Amino acid sequence: MREDELAAPVVTHFRASHDAVTVALEEPYDHYGNRGQLDVYVRVRDSPRVDHLIELKADAAVRRATGANEVLRQFRRAEQYFYPGSDRGVRRRLGRTEPGVRLLLLFAPTVACVEHVAEHATLYEAVEPETRVEAVDAARKVAFLVGLSEAPAGGVRFLSVNDGAGLASTAFRRAVPDDSRLADALAAADGVADGS
Fold it and tell me: Which terminus has fewer CB within 10 Å in the chain: N or C?
């Protein structure tokens, strides 16, 4: 599975789920030489406004990566350098009860990605879900994509491994739909505990 096969349903999902969205693919950032590209940037302009900074990882990316540290370093660079020095700005809002920024590291529902996350589960599961970006509450999610074919109805889901229900946990396995690509990948992956 390629990253563009992930990006298209993610974009479709956000457009189907919200009335007012701005989407940018391969959005560059450059803050004092700290350069990178974010796979998908989504600004949901519904009230309240929420930005989604999305890093996608498919088979080729996890095969090329030297490990989880490389993947997490790229994810954190976007968190640190996406807003400073740009005109994108994220604003604090009085009375906001939800995070204003959602930082999503999303893996393909494939055997290669399941094996990669399982091998580095300790690191991915340790990513703190709560943070602040530009003085705005933010949420980090390391997750697998589920329901890609349901994107036109806004049905894509992000099954998190860093919110207390790790990849090998019973809670995570119960959340995986039986007839999904992720269920098939979990069943086929080598060395991945079954959650029992």
Answer: C
The pairing of strands 21-31 and 101-107 is: unpaired
Helix-helix angle 181-188:111-119, to 10 degrees: 60
pLDDT tens track for 99-149 = 889 999 999 999 999 999 999 999 999 999 998 887 788 899 999 999 999
Give a yes or no: residue 194 inside a domain: no
Residue 16 lies in a domain: yes
Q: How many domains does the chain have?
A: 1
Q: Is residue 121 part of a domain?
A: yes
Q: Which domain holds residue 93?
A: 3-188
Task: Choose between 59 and 80: higher pLDDT.
Answer: 59
Q: Which run of H or E residues covers position 113? A: helix 111-119
Neighbouring residues of 33: CB distance < 8 A, sequence distance ≥ 6: none
DSSP state of 93: -
Neighbours of 146 (CB within 10 A): 19
**For 143-170, how does the pLDDT look when each residue is reduced to its tens digit (9 = 90+)?**
999 999 999 999 999 999 998 889 989 9
